[in-house]
Amino acid sequence: MAARQQEDGSAIKDPFRIALTSSVGAILKDVGYTEVEPNALQSLVEMTQSFISQIGKSSKHYSELANRSQVGPKNAVGCWSLRKCSMD
Predict the structure, then answer these.
(1) Alpha-carbon gap, residue 58 to 64, rounded angstroms
(2) What is the pTM (predicted TM-score) of this model?
């Protein structure tokens, strides 16, 4: 995925992506890594973002099956705990 760019050619910094990168870096540090290559970190961030997105989509489908019009936190927790989340 190519980064979005501003008119002057510099990349737009997405606050969500920055926070996710920091979180993934903190997890790596907690499990004992002292260094990580930037490409490896970006790959892990993309996988984490995809996983979070899939949980959201599965929660939406789960709430639709329960005849609810909006997704709530209980749907996401229920989806995760009942293992209704498909990673397809």
Answers:
(1) 10
(2) 0.62
Domain spanning 15-81: which superfamily?
A: Histone, subunit A (1.10.20.10)
5, 10, 37, 55, 65 from 61: Cα distances, Å: 33, 38, 36, 10, 6
Six token digits for residue 10 = 């510099």
**Number of other CB atoms surrounding residue 24 within 10 Å:** 20
Phi-psi region of 76 (alpha: psi -120 to 50; beta: other; left: phi over 0): alpha
Cβ neighbors of 72 (< 8 A, separation 6 or more) are 63
Residue 51: pLDDT over 70: yes
Contact by Cβ (8 Å): 41, 21:
yes
Residue 42: exposed, middle, or buried by beta-carbon count in 10 A (0-12, 13-18, 19+)?
middle
Domain map (residue ranges) of the chain? 15-81
